[in-house]
Amino acid sequence: MGRLQTFDSTTVVQAARDLFWNFGFDGASLGDLEEATGVNRSSLYHAFGSKRGLFDAAVSDYLDTVIRPRLRGLTLAGAGRDALLTYFDGLRHAVDTLPEDSPRRGCLLVNAAAGLAAHDEPARAVVDAYRAELSAALRHAFAGSDPALVDERVRTLASLSMSAMLLARVNREEAAALLSTAAEQVRAWLPSTQS
Fold first, then answer.
1. Which CATH architecture does the domain made up of 62-189 adopt?
2. Where are the domains of the chain?
3. Three-state DSSP state, 167
4. What is the pLDDT of residues 178-195, one digit of tens each?
5. How far is CA 161 from CA 40, 88, 96, 167, in A?
6. What is the C-alpha to C-alpha distance for residues 154 and 139, in angstroms, rounded to an integer?
7. Which of 57, 78, 62, 76 is nearest to 22 (CA)?
8. Contact, 24 vs 116, CB < 8 A?
9. What is the Cα gyration radius of the chain?
10. Positions in the chain whose pLDDT score sits under 50
């Protein structure tokens, strides 16, 4: 007979997510995960299979609860200049107001790209899929713009966004400046008369 799970998986995954977000996959020890989740390692292994299984669950939760809600405005019908400005202004506000000691500085996936994804193909694929999802959302918001310019603009904005999220861990002011630059690019590329 199998053991009964005595903890809420969502709560455990989100606690682990914040630990991975703060320290990365390699920097989060099993002891740290036990302390953060309040669940012993044997129960974590039973529920998630491995530390990597818990990390994968944390990344999935991050995409569903942090990334996709933020991108949603860019993917709605009629998204355009205002949606792009809301996206970049929202990121800048988050960077500006997050406490320095918050585990949620930057982006879990961008942080993973600098660590685990450098030597792990499944992690690399997840990070690249995030980049593609971000780019697709930005591209959607440029619907109706000059198609010859859209790819370059999307690449520029995605790069500014991801760079800002990496810098948010070490230089909040520069991260916010990059996001302000992205918003200024949107204003220059899409005049207020165009949506």
1. Orthogonal Bundle (1.10)
2. 62-189
3. helix
4. 999 999 999 999 988 644
5. 37, 8, 14, 10
6. 6
7. 62
8. yes
9. 18
10. 1, 194-195
